[in-house]
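Give me the 3D structure for Putative tail protein.
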Amino acid sequence: MAALQNRADYRLSLEGRDLSPGSPNTFAEILREKFLETISPRLISLSLRETRGGEADTLDLVLHDHDGALEIPQPGAVLSLSLGWADGPDVEKGLVDKGRFKVDEASWEGPPDIVTIRARSADFTASFDKRRERSHVATTLGAIIRDIAGASGLAAKIDPALDALEVEAIEQDELSDAALLRSLGRRYDAAATVKNGTLLFLPIGGAGSGAIPAGTLTRRSGDRYRYRRGERGQFAGVEARWHDKKTGERQTVVVESVRGVGGSGSRGPKRLKRIYATEKSAKAAARSSAAKIDRAQAEFEMELALGRPELYPERPIVLTGFKPEIDARSWLIAEAEHTLTADGGLNTRLKLEPRRS
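Predicted structure for Putative tail protein (357 residues):
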């Protein structure tokens, strides 16, 4: 009897119609045009890249068009995807819902003739990319996030520690909401994501990740791994200055860097150039900068021959069986890429960064 093999599985639908292997539905039924009976014989590759920080996840499909029957899908068509394993001795059977995606662009080329489709997370609507002219003056970070969410018809959820932070002025000059979210994320060390009609703005690796169960990776989990650390030029912490209106003087707050293994703090504290309006704003900026310094100390990348679609950005990771200094750190997924090929292989590539404790 032949040994059992690990066999990947997926479910792919367009506008609610199933296009998975063996499905009787066709794109012709959906688009009212001849397209294909089932996507499986045509699938060359499927790649899903999951990120954070206000960027939409991207789904890339490459399909055979050897018979010329494949039509190019229209922009805005909605794809739904689940990835996982059908069976096998080394994997956990089942599918993981990876969300909904809107077709952004498509191309046709040859020979051999192929159709390439790129789709973006459907939760990031077109309004996020619309350039806007508006001012956010004498407000709070939470109010700005709620304004952005409201403009796209979304609810908003902001970490309480970030919600009440005072913002003197932010000019949105021909800047899209997506770009503004990325800018705010960098400033406050937070990640913006959209889930189930809600815009989430949470600290990177903070309270939002605390409720997410940690995944575990060992040396046997992957084909390749790479660890990098930076030992020289580490800042000991961050100084932020603020203007005390009562005394008319500038005050300074200091947040120490969690240097951990390999960090020397040889350059002393980093001083932020900006002068903040309140002590609270200065502390928040210093904490944000210190967290970035901590995460820049090290990086871990791993390629998993047996894909793990249940792993996604912001999920905590425990590494075991590597070097002691690697195992000793707390890690966080910064980026995940899942790839499915026509031969049934499912792989995952992960980029991890240290998690601030």
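The helical segments are 27-31, 141-151, 160-163, 177-188, 207-210, 279-296, 324-327. Let me know if you want a second pass.
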